């Protein structure tokens, strides 16, 4: 079994996964289960940072969905000068996921291709140009092996980034080429573009001035004739200032009304206990005045009765 993490194997699938926060692991959408990437673009996660595997949780999902237990060795392709930590984590993941895997071998896909397509007995020196999705590696090969020469011309940051002297990594790959080609074609209509079958023959044609004038199509894009930074009329500036002042006055008036309403609500809450006490006092006073009136009425009635009884006695 060959697991090619950067090349073009026979079994092709998207190396992305989509899982919402809080969902279960079994509910993740993996590989070709994602029919359209655009609606889930903000949920997509990949195991790669450039061309190095760093997200091993996503890589484990890929293994679980792509393979099962195997009983034969595995060849695993990786980027040149891969970090030892990344390789160790990948080995642990492979032996944990594929429980019956006896051996794992790591290698660079471009060198595998070089050895497969050339005779090692009569091997001529050359340079391997390996272009991946995010970057491009330049590997010099002498006598069938990658050499580490030209150390004096190697930048210091290459030594610290894990790239051996004599090897070179350029941070330009297929994604940058595709986006650049897309930007080039954004201003060109479909009838005015074509794919060259013979690149060198097309270059010879374009050297001719007549062919150039005949094939080049110029298109005028819409633009505004008003130059930026031009002098604005004083009346327009005054009108804008008046409009801004009017908006500020309306905003301040609304804020004052809201503050007054809030103050009124606070005052009502504070006066509510006082009103309750006043009502209690009023009820008490009315009850006391009623009692005094009853007493006075009883005294008057008793006085009248006493006067009548005294008259009868006399």
Automatic annotation (TrEMBL):
This is Actin related protein 5. InterPro entries: Actin, ATPase_NBD. SUPFAM superfamilies: Actin-like ATPase domain. It comes from Hucho hucho (huchen). It holds the Pfam family Actin.
